[in-house]
Amino acid sequence: MALPAVPSFRLPGLVATVGAYLPQWPHSVGLCVGLNLAARAGLLSGHSLAALEGRCFQVVMEDAAARATFACRGGVFRPVYSAHARPDLVFRATLSAYLRLIAGQEDPDTLFFRRELLLEGDTELALEVKNMLDSVDWPGLATLGRWRSALTG
User: Fold this and answer.
1) DSSP class of 1
2) Over the stretch 44-66, which tens digit does the pLDDT of each residue have?
3) Beta strands 89-93; 56-61: pairing state
4) How far is CA 10 from CA 47, 68, 93, 128, 132, in A?
C-alpha cells in the first residue's frame, strides 16, 4: 500500500510559537514507542542497534518547535527527560521533510544535500544511522500485519 505524496511545506509560525511552550517529553515517549515497535518487527537490524548502544539522540521538528530526546540502552530506545542531556547526534528538519522521508519520497542524502535535513554531532554515528534508515522498508510500516505481529510477537 503506497503512502500518499507529501508536498513540501512549512507549518505556520504560530505552531512553533505555541510548540515552544508545550512539554517535550511526550514526543520522546512517542518516538521511542515507534522505534521499539520497528525494532521488534525486524525493521531495524540488530547490527545497527548495537552501533547505537549507549548513544543519545535528539530529533528536532523546527517548524513546530518540537524535540524528542532518547537513548539506546540494552537494545531498547528510552526517552531522555533531562534538559541537560547532550545528544551525540541531532537531526533537524521540518515536519514535511520527515514525512517525505518516512513516505519514501526522499532519501536522507537528498534531504541533507538540499539542507532540509541538518545533522549535528558525531559524523560516524550519523553515517551509521543513515545506513540504518536506508535499510528500513518505510512503506512497509503502513502494513497492519507487521504492526500486529510486532505487538503480539
Assistant:
1) -
2) 877 788 899 999 999 999 999 99
3) parallel
4) 35, 19, 10, 28, 27
Query: What's the pTM?
Result: 0.84
Is 147 part of a structural domain of the chain? Answer: no
Q: Which amino acid is at 113?
A: F
How are beta strands 89-93 and 118-121 bridged, if at all?
A: antiparallel
CATH number of the domain residue 72 falls in? 3.30.1050.10
Ranges of residues in the chain whose predicted pLDDT is under 50: 144-145
Q: Is residue 150 part of a domain?
A: no
pLDDT, position 116: 96
The answer to the question of residue 149 being in a domain is no
Does some domain include residue 153? no
Contact present, 66 and 27 (Cβ < 8 Å): yes
Q: What's the domain count of the chain?
A: 1
Which letter does DSSP use for residue 53 in this model? B
Residue-number span of the structural domain to which 56 is assigned: 13-140
DSSP states of 92-153: EE-HHHHHHHHTTSS-HHHHHHTTSSEEEE-HHHHHHHHHHHHHS-GGGGG-HHHHHHHHH-
